[in-house]
Amino acid sequence: MGQLTASGRDTAYVWVGRDTGGQPDPAAELLCQAGRLLLDRPMAELVLTHGPGGRPLVRASDDPAGSCGLPVSVSRTAGLVVVAARRAGAIGVDVERVRPLPALALARRWFPPAELTWLADRPEAGRAVDFLRLWTAKEAVGKALGQGLRGGGLRREMPPPGLPWRPVPGAEALWVGHPELGGDLVLAVAVHATGQVDVEVVQRTGQGAVEVVQRPGHGVAAVRSASVERTSLPVVVRGNWSSRCSTRGRL
After folding, report:
1. CA nearest neighbour of 144 among 177, 190, 96
2. What is the pTM of this model?
């Protein structure tokens, strides 16, 4: 079924692109392209579906059980879509735009006491960002677990946000981190893993170019790259899609 990842390492790939709300769905396009590259199968043989626990999955049409499928995750915020994929295991992603919000009031309602205390001790000027870091971590972890925020997901305690990967309290081999996107975006990625996982974040910069925002060699802790280059998983997807790997509808 092809290599472990495009880089030969256990890597969480994240693509950031524009979402205009039209058709074809940019998330579905990117998911199909990720399946072609990471599963090493023609797109005509790929299916977008859900695996055990409701996690989204890209699988080959001759693998109805999804035993060799590609775990993926999707998140949207205003005008933006983020798609993540990882060949080696479960992954979850979430993105939010920074905006004014009553961080402490929301935390009192939804978050456990330890997180409320941590947030209250943070500088007021950045409290909305810190709140969204906790929120996106909960969303990403819930997606990696295949549960979303059901069953008290907002009460699930998260580690203090930051880099590199942080272990999720009370969850074996579950990690969450916040790769830097810059601007007004907060991104969280969660993985099930017992060993090192790299993360590569690729952002579309317009006119078909992509910027490698992070391509670390030793885990998620990496500084932003100023270079613009092609990546092994291109963000720009063109061409027609088969009825099997369909981009109709919204994911």
Report:
1. 190
2. 0.80
